[in-house]
Amino acid sequence: MHEATSNIYHMINLLADMPGFDSFVKERDITKHTSDFIDAFLAWRSEHLMTNKNDETTIRIIQEKIQAYKHENNKVSPLSGFYKQYKVHDCLVSDFDEDVLKCRIGKVYFTNADVQHYKTIKEKIANIAVDISPIYDKYKNSNNPYINAQLAEILNRGKQYNIGLLHLYQALIYALSYPNPYWDTPIAVYGCMRALWELQYLLGKKGLTDLTTNTNRFCGKILEMLYLLLSRSIHIEENSLLSAICLSLRADLMYDYNIEYMYIFNTYVGLGVNIEIQYMADKAFSHEIAASLGLASVFEQQFKDSLKMYQHGNLVPYNSIGIRDVEDETMGQLNSKAWKRSIILDTNLYGQYQKGEYFFDKSQITEIISYLHNKYITSK
Fold first, then answer.
1. For the stretch 170-200, what's the b/e string if a residue is b when 16 or more beta carbons lie within 10 angstroms of its beta carbon?
2. Which tens digits make up the pLDDT trace of 257-282?
């Protein structure tokens, strides 16, 4: 975790010791986030406690310190960390992964990847067959986006789209909501990301285009929100295995939608951003985090792909011009600058999110699911 992030959490711990904080957290509706919960805490104190100027001054100092730490270094994402007080505890989640593992039936089947990264290798996605019928009743009514996203993926891969799309709908309600009551719950944020990942996978580029009009900016909103949720999952618990996984996924997403993300970076960061460098950096940092966790060999491919992009400009080494051939800086320097650009994009996308730009109501989500229903069920 970056030093400034650690300092922020030190300040938050000091705030948690202030009189009235526990009662404020218990009474506050977690679905009604404000831009700064410290202002909300001060307002709550003015209504419920006797005025204490010393306490109020201390709280304001803490508030100023937090803002100073956030702005002192642009390597700190506004998506870093989470408030444990707002974490939604769901006892079913702790059982879910273990129960799903027990439901694996040993078969592996393969589907072709939508985007092929290599010319000499036919990429396929390995799917492990799962029979969730023994546990389905236990989880079918869960509201947790992680559980619903996982159920959707399992059922859709098994071509049980009638049920799978229902669970995708339930997960998307939170993934495309604002405010999101699960924003400070790491596994649920990851679930929201998986729901949007599944959505873009099922839609494909054609579906994203079909649902886009001149006014709704559907494709752009989905890809921006998916990037934001990936970044949230990267930063919510920094230097974790989840962070390493999501960095690699974010790189893959930019590679698959290179033109779309070039436009997004040009809009929110500045002109001339090379998506290949952003890809290279995310893959490199993914491997770096994994190595710090003793998982370097597991994430070896991430390192190789990052190096290929630097040396050859793509994942197919074939007498091509690499990033190193057109840039004067070292790989490390380029990665550092790419990281700063990703923070800028995080900041601007988060600002759009706070304005409700990525909110989809239930009727809009129903329209999306209807499109998928027609694609995978009606037209078959």
1. bbbbbbbbebbbbbbbbbbbbbbbbbbbbbb
2. 999 999 999 999 999 999 999 999 99
